[in-house]
Amino acid sequence: MELITGAEIMVRCLKEEGVEYLFGYPGGAVLHIYDALYVQEDVKHILVRHEQAALHAADGYSRACGKPGVALVTSGPGLTNAITGIANAYMDSVPLVVFSGQVPTALIGNDAFQEVDAVGITRPCVKHNFLVRDIKNLAETIKKAFFIATTGRPGPVLIDLPKDVTIAKAEYHYPKKVKLRSYNPTIKGHAGQIRKAVDMILSAKRPIIYTGGGVILSDGSPELVELTQLLGYPITNTLMGLGAYPATDKQFIGMLGMHGTYEANMAMHDCDVLIAIGARFDDRVTGKIEKFCPSARIVHVDIDPSSISKNVQVDIPIVGSVPNVLRAMISVIRDEKLKPDAEALGKWWRQIDEWRAIKSLNYRQSNEVIKPQFVIQKLYEVTQGQAIIASDVGQHQMWAAQYYHFDRPRQWINSGGLGTMGFGLPAAMGAKFAFPDQDVACVTGDGSIQMMLQELATMKQYNTPVKIVNLNNGYLGMVRQWQEFFYQKRYCMTYFESLPDFVMLAEAYGHVGMRIDKPRDVEGALREAFAMKDRTVFLDFITDQTENVFPMIPSGGGQNEMLLAERDEMVSTHDEGMVLL
Amino acid sequence: MNNNNRHLISILLENEAGALSRVANLFSARGYNIESLTVAPTDDPTLSRLTLVTSGNEQVIEQIVKQLNKLIDVVKLIDLSETDAIERELMLIKTRANGEQRAEMKRLADIFGGRILDVTDATYTIELTGDGEKLDNFLRAVERDAILEVVRSGATGIARGQKALHI
Q1: What is the DSSP letter of A572?
Q2: Residues of B in contact with A306 (CB under 8 A)
Q3: How far apart are alpha carbons A485 and A423 in whole angstroms?
Q4: CA of B74 to nearest chain A CA: how many angstroms apart?
Q5: What is the ipTM of this complex?
């Protein structure tokens, strides 16, 4: 039998897993792995400019196409730089397999050069991690890592590889299947619970379906659409769940939560049955827990038992994968020819339409200064709603979520849980690797973009043309908004007195730069940029510096205590609410 | 609803490096209370048995159990407080044993079913097992000044009857 090195084993395992792209950055501890990568062409290595970007790119790739993202970093600083990316994927349950180099086993614990306790430092932000001390376990560990990362509630798994393990030789055997006695996620929902849930759902007078990222991660969108349309109920999506249900359908009442639509939040507040699917009752969604859905009985479908009754006690929990459980619900309804209460539902929809008529996403248009919302609306029009949108974190993220109507899952890529500024650009690049023929835009701001700017070089090297839509207001807008409302306009450290010339900067990296400061030029610039199919274009939109994101539920408020744009004066929140900022 | 009840949770854990820290880390990361923790390999060398004492209301305990089950290294667990169970803790206590105190200390150890493991002119080292309350009672019975050192193992336990935690 042929003996090959640990590095070669790793690369062969990746090939067998069907890994197309490995996002990484070399260093001393992983030199053998890079040497093994050099002599093959199956796994394409993408050389980023910072390890955090390797993780975000792998993350964006995975969110766009559903396959696990794979990254490789060296020991010590390579790994510590990657931590933000790992934590980001963990919070949003993105399946990643991360390889980190480690100092040779004999030196572990010796404070060796570029040594850090990788399994220790990542433990709180991975689904699981491994330190491979013996080459005999390497292939099986890699199999386990892919299995754990992609099943159940997905998440990042780290494999720490000491340098001597990558040098040692062993026979290659990649197991076809792997079984862990301690890990066996529940996929199929409990039939009795599903039956009970269907009864409760059909007994509703004022129902609402509230779905999150779990629907997208489990590819449960077709089942969700079928069930929702079968019932005729209103549906709202979380920030992470946008695209799971087509936003242009009349049953969709918009995003819910802190910056959700008036109709979505009011319907949540007044509902009598809440059907939560693949969502986790995050604090940005619930507002003050005591005021959350006061008269609702709750059904909750989730693959992770620990997500159920964590923040809000539910009446009917169902543990299982979303498509599986929803198919079972649909069968019960169809087989027994069950019907919702049409009269009550009609009345409920009339109420919702009244809320809708308030048009909570209206804003004051201007002919002088570019409104950021307007840019997103034009982006939507120019791309005919078909582009993949990767967003950074801040006001622009909320506007993108509100004004770009996502009709399909995996079209909207954003850092929801961790809220990582800098995520957008490398994530857009990762999405472009997954779908080179689709339009990909990165919606960002002047704060976020500067956190991962160096990836413009990677994008040049690999020719991943992304359209960067920079909503440049000179401020850290979301923080500025809170300072305006809750800190008596004391704008501490939220104004950038110095910003680079983004046009020149884009050009310095070999891309196209455009600066747009008139509302009338917005559409033309976007059309021009998207016409340049093979170029990355940096569109620097100089936007209204004082624009705020509305509607808004101030922390500590209930879902029915929204502030709308017309009421520009913000009442100060109470102390209890301030803690929740 | 009962608030902050004490729970004895017993876990079968993969006997692997780092498994214990995953459990300990979970408690600190999520702000759960941990009163004591004992761990040792079982008759099956691939498994460790970990017993911990925690407290919280029903909701908190439910989350603790779910979060523990979510750890890949946790094979099985049981909340022994939810069942009829035997709880034991080992205590080693070094006391002064001078003059009149010497006979008194011996009598006290006997009453509590303790064993004297080591004797010097001036001290006894006593071994005592029982549930936590019994050990507390013993400590209360001994004069404060007489105690030189106390070592407690933390509680461990097993279900009564035919019920057994194994794979």
Answers
A1: P
A2: 63, 66-67, 69-70
A3: 27
A4: 6
A5: 0.92
